[in-house]
Amino acid sequence: MKILKFGGTSVGSVESIKAVLSIVKESYDAGEKPLVVLSAMSGITNLLTKMAEDAAEGKPFAEDLKLMEEKHFEVVKKLIAVKFQNPVLTRLKLLINELEDLLQGVTALKELSNQSKDLIISYGERCSNYLVSKVMEQEIPESEYINASYYIKTDSNFGNAHLNEPLTNQLIQALSQTHADKLLFVTGFIGSNEKGRITTLGRGGSDYTAAIFGSVLNATAIEIWTDVNGMLTADPRIVKKAFSLPLLSYTEAMELSYFGAKVIYPPTMVPAFMKKIPIIIRNTFQPKFSGTVIQFESGKSAYPIKGISSISEVSVINLTGSGMVGKSGFSGRLFTLLAREQINVILITQSSSEHSITFAVNPNDSQKAVELIQNEFELELLANKLSMPVVEGDLSILAIVGENMKRTPGMSGKLFHALGRNGINVRAIAQGSSEFNISVIINKEDLSKALNAVHDAFFAELKKTLHVFNIGTGNIGSTLFSQLNKQHDFLEEQNDIEIKVVGISNSRRMYFNEDGIDLNSWKEELENDGEVADLATFISKMQEMNLPNCVFIDNTASKLPSTYYENIFQSNISIVTCNKIANSGDYSQYRLLHETARKHGVDFFYETNVGAGLPIVRVLKDLMMSGDRLLKIEAILSGTISYIFNNFKGDASFYDVVKKAQELGFTEPDPRDDLGGIDFMRKMLILGRDAGYPIESSDVELGNILPESCLQANSVDEFYAELLKADDYFNNLKREAEEQGKVIRYIGSLENGKVSISLQMVDESHPFYALSGSDNIISFTTERYKERPLVVKGPGAGAEVTAAGVFADLVNVGA
Ligand code: ADP
Ligand code: ASP
Ligand code: MG
């Protein structure tokens, strides 16, 4: 025989009850001799609890009662043939009337004992099982309703009663003999004490009922039918990427459920374990799916852990005292005391100094625990051997679980790395003595982020999600979006990276969407659904959203964003930017930002600050990191200047070439902004700093391209007039170069910590001689690349290549 247990959601509606019936029927027809255990219809246990509590406070409950009645009556009307409806409706009405009497009693007494409460909530399971058995009876006449409180005997610990095993065994055995040919529908969750008063087995206890029946009747399997595909790697409501586990050991399932995986009630594992009966968690709404088998062996798995679970609300109590805490007698007294008073200690940690003990309890128990401690240890407190207990609330527990964990080194390192990288502060750590779990206490507000980050870290074969907040939607920003959009599927399939743009702002509007902004229609969404832009608000919203693997992209050219970088790093968010301002300001600022990013374990990537998408910053960094020694950098890092000198040959006049460059859109509106070399200087400065030199912009020797008269001109027109007059000057330069077989180049160099930029004439042996178009070029002379320098050359400007560089940086975040 087999136990089929269906949870509240499986019997929550007409449609789901139909699904239950077909699963039961199939098993019955296949001769599996199922015994069915049902929970109350979904939401009913909570509703009953609320009605009971309301009644005790004299609040009305009639509407809720009506709701409960209607929910059950609807099933009768839709699933039972008209001619059979009456007796069923009558019986249900009777149960509801009884319930109403009880609630009125509570109202009259203004008091709700745990005993009364158990009696009241037992009506949930009693109604649902009676009802479903009657629906089934139409097809299988052997169907019969069983009130399990006559068979499951417990102590009088109302709300969380403990099983009287021998008595229960006898009673269930007897039941199975008298009802051998029946298809039983047994109420989950409820039992009764020796006086026959109804008790309950703890919230979620129907699973336990199923295991108790399964164990007494030596079932071949205990199937727990619910609304998800078995036990998943994490709570699917919080971790969207959670996936179903095919196999778990009893211990693993116990640990996962103990630390919050609600899908199965922890005590359920005990009876099954004793008799080695497999528990199979299955999905009522996807009956073909095999679900999760819980059995003796943990089985092989591709991952070092099985799952991650969490308890979202706990309080922590800290005890310190040099005289007492840590001594074995003390802990013994403490935990015996708490156990005696039914306070469940979820987790205990002890500092290595042994002068303190930290333990976590349900927040409802914390006050009582403190009072108990104060009474029990009154003398020690008076003698200052112990300090007053300190309670901290708003905390959560996250636990990673798996039997393979103890065989795999580095598990806790991985856990703390994932938490640390995301700025999640760990308040306490405990490793289960079994080494099957490591649990940490964190702030409640970080829980969702922590679960997702840890899930990404441990199930790395799965894709990593980057959450992107982008400011600047000009040429580069919008090109980046279209590149991201095009590459989305490829990245996901080939690189297991999912990039979600969750915040976009330009100078006018900003827009957020935690599920990811559709990059086909970001413009419309920003315009229509967005709000008025404000950078400070944008950044604090980004911080409040507290998402894992978060990246801020600055695709603007303004100064303001850089003033927030430090603050952004402090909230453990990486930055990717094409904006040079932050890195080329004061050296102290450069230093501060880099150190802050490093301290918080986040990335600061700005490859596009130098040479757009060309790999320059990264190459320099890799050379330095691999222990090479930089001797010299030579570079042409201005596409505009590059274009001008590459075309200043033959008969062309310098004036014509500059004019042409401007017409082609290569220059700034005032060409002196390019020809003055400031932008080039900034790039050299950044490279110099990245190479380890504390250089300020005032240290850079910036040679002029233009004669003084052109620089002094008051307007662009005047500048061109002066440039025309300077023709001789440039022609002389050109002639001089040509006579020596050389070309003119404006070259930046870094040598011995000094940066200079100057006009030079180079011959064909120089790597910059053959430069064409508007290309950038850089050569690294190092200890390793001494004979032939390492040269990087290519287009160093343009929206497509710059956006591609930002994209590449983004993909590397967290790598
Ligand atoms: P039932 O009503 O069938 O007893 P429960 O609500 O008690 O169902 O448990 C099922 C729910 O548990 C799922 O809907 C899911 O949201 C939640 N849950 C939490 N953690 C996990 C997990 N690790 N695996 C599967 N489900 C989980
Ligand atoms: N109906 C009870 C509850 O909601 C028992 C169960 O569903 O397992 O806790
Ligand atoms: Mg449940």
UniProtKB/TrEMBL annotation:
This is Bifunctional aspartate kinase/homoserine dehydrogenase I. Its EC number is 1.1.1.3, 2.7.2.4. Bifunctional aspartate kinase and homoserine dehydrogenase that catalyzes the first and the third steps toward the synthesis of lysine, methionine and threonine from aspartate. Residues 400-478 form the ACT domain. CDD domains: AAK_AK-HSDH-like, ACT_AKi-HSDH-ThrA-like_1, ACT_AKi-HSDH-ThrA_2. PROSITE patterns: ACT, ASPARTOKINASE, HOMOSER_DHGENASE. NCBIfam families: asp_kinases, PRK09436.1.
